[in-house]
Amino acid sequence: MASKQPLGNSSRRTFLKHTTGLVGLTLAPMNQADYIAPSSSVVQGATDLTLRINGRVYPLRAEPRTTLLDALREYLHLTGTKKGCDHGQCGACTVHVNGERITSCLTLAIMQQGKDITTIEGLSKGDDSATARLHPVQEAFLKHDGFQCGYCTPGQIMSAVACIREGHATSDHQCREWMSGNICRCGAYANILAAIREVASAQ
Ligand code: FES
Ligand code: FES
């Protein structure tokens, strides 16, 4: 009978990098012309939208009721942004719109046209794994093991980047308060806090 191999830290990190969008490099955007939802052409009331995400312009055709989260994941295949509760309660879907963090499950894609949207895929600099540089908050999450399963991690990181920029990470208490909208079911809070506080203290 084959024995089970324990999943070591480095292999877990490698796995998470490639599955959570922590780096975002495995989610290379497709050509703009490719973005058409498979079923949108037969959906009554579908309309043409244009979203500016991570510095690129993405046309898509979707129903006006499509949330930004679904537009990102289901239409544009930017799956680094996660769907947890789909009700604004977990923070897994956090993205930035014009530099401010929002829960993308609670806003319609059609309302975000003409705005600058940043997702976890847009945080690192550089387009390929050879030259890319992680955002300091991504680096800190890796350093402090700020995740276990990694599902909440993209939302935690997007929220943390904004939290630091807002000046809401100047103490442990303040950081916990202003990150309270991001739930981690694995309970990695202590490590997440350490990662955020390190980056905030260095600024
Ligand atoms: Fe949006 Fe939970 S999926 S807050
Ligand atoms: Fe698993 Fe946060 S790392 S939910």
CATH class group of the largest domain: Alpha Beta
Question: What is the fourth-level CATH superfamily of the largest domain?
Answer: Beta-grasp domain
Number of folding domains?
2
Low-confidence runs of at least 5 consecutive residues: 1-8, 23-35
CATH topology of the largest domain: Ubiquitin-like (UB roll)
The proportion of residues forming helix, as a percent range, comes to 25-40%
The distinct ligands, each listed once, are:
FE2/S2 (inorganic) cluster
The side-by-side strand order for the widest beta sheet comes to: 2-1-5-3-4
Class of secondary structure makeup: alpha+beta
Cα distance, first to last residue? 53 Å
Q: Based on the structure given, which CATH architecture of the largest domain is correct?
A: Roll
Reported for the largest beta sheet, the result is: 5 strands, mixed
Outline:
globular
Alpha plus pi helix count: 6
Q: Report the mean per-residue pLDDT as an integer.
A: 86
What is the number of beta strands? 5
